[in-house]
Design goal:
alpha+beta, three-stranded antiparallel β-sheet, two-stranded antiparallel ribbon, 12 helices, 11 strands, 39% helix, globular
Length: 373
């Protein structure tokens, strides 16, 4: 039994508890992972009992779990219902049960029991019928006729705007500088979480709601002034943006949700691990790795893991060198725009070509590219 200490600030009392975990603490998801370990095996064992090819059946059913939240995916409704029964029986063996209010069966494309798609970890996953130009494909390259779209859930958007609204409400009398300093971390954190999915429309909607909240805040501070006067006082023009919530001296400005760039998540190969030592792969995917120099990792991601000279992929253990596209002897700068990552032998070949061009400037550049010395 885990023993937690409980302390109440209101009553100034301290007591020890014999059960439970602090809400929001890191121990809660850890205990959930320990308790629910093995759930996936139950589903995979059931998949082997289905008629047909065992390998295809095992790959056709998926259980995705994050701590105590999980979803089961399969194309057959009967299989999903049977999986629900199996999970319920398995949980009862360890003293747990599925919460009815959070358990439902839904179809990602068609309506089922008034449900379409599902929410998971703050995201809404749905599929939409599209034409052949936008259709997804299966592993065999066959068009599916629909496309999977992942967006921030409506509930999370409402919760986010409610949190911002409460913060603005509690800061009616503070200066604009302090209000912006409190809002920016919230906006930055929320948008970063959803920056890898289809979020532009939701971000624009969040900015519209935020503008209305801030406009009400400004009008509350100046009840005898017009709405236009309030907007001119608290919103300034910066570049092509005429609605920037900032002070006149522009010391600090409010971030906008839509300013966060959308960067698609790159799937991790099934046989990869952050601890496998292949920092070439992880640098190409993430742009950083503790074992790789910062510039090398950044260039690997920028070049998508390929040599800028020969166009071949880098392999783990191969010699890689940073090259200046325009040599520094010709005035090239030491910036990322002028840097590229090459194989060691490719770097030697390019350097030889550059040296020949310096000594014989009358030689045609196309000839040098086709016949490197």
């Amino acid at each position: 039994m885990i023993d937690f200490a409980a302390y109440s600030n209101r009553q100034k009392t301290y007591s020890r508890t014999s059960e439970g975990a602090p809400q929001g603490g890191c121990i809660s998801p850890l205990l959930a992972n320990i308790a629910l370990h093995g759930m996936e095996n139950q589903i995979k064992q059931f998949a082997l009992t289905l008629p047909g090819d065992k390998r295809a059946n095992r790959q056709g059913i998926s259980l995705i779990r994050f701590a105590d939240d999980f979803v089961i995916l399969h194309e057959n409704l009967t299989v999903v219902q049977r999986c629900q029964q199996i999970i319920a029986e398995w949980l009862s063996g360890i003293g747990l049960e599925l919460k009815p209010s959070k358990t439902r069966i839904s179809h990602t494309l068609n309506k089922h029991e008034d449900n379409v798609g599902f929410d998971f970890l703050g995201f809404t996953i749905r599929q939409f019928t599209v034409g052949k130009c936008h259709s997804g494909k299966n592993r065999g390259g066959i068009l599916l006729g629909f496309k999977t779209i992942i967006t921030p859930s409506k509930a999370k958007l409402n919760a986010h705007m409610h949190r911002i609204g409460k913060l603005i409400e509690s800061h009616k009398s503070v200066p604009q500088f302090d209000l912006i300093a409190h809002l920016n971390p919230i906006i930055r954190g929320w948008t970063s979480y959803y920056a890898s999915v289809v979020s532009k429309r939701i971000f624009n909607e969040a900015d519209s709601i935020l503008f209305s909240q801030l406009k009400a805040w400004a009008e509350h501070r100046h009840p005898n002034k017009s709405s236009q006067w309030c907007c001119q006082k608290y919103w300034q023009s910066i570049g092509f943006d005429n609605w920037v919530f900032t002070s006149i001296n522009r010391v600090i400005r409010l971030l906008k949700h839509r300013e966060t760039p959308i960067v698609r998540h790159t799937k991790v190969q099934g046989n990869r691990s952050p601890f496998d030592g292949d920092w070439v792969y992880w640098s190409s995917r993430m742009g950083k790795h503790p074992e790789a120099p910062t510039r090398v990792a950044t260039l690997l991601k920028k070049q998508k893991g390929k040599c800028a000279y020969c166009g071949l992929f880098f392999r783990n253990g191969e010699e890689m060198e940073i090259d200046h596209k325009l040599p520094r002897s010709k005035g090239g700068k030491d910036s990322y725009d002028n840097l590229q990552l090459l194989h060691g032998h490719c770097h030697d070949a390019k350097t030889a070509t550059d040296n020949v061009a310096i000594r014989f400037p009358e030689i045609d550049e196309d000839y040098l590219n086709l016949n490197p010395f």
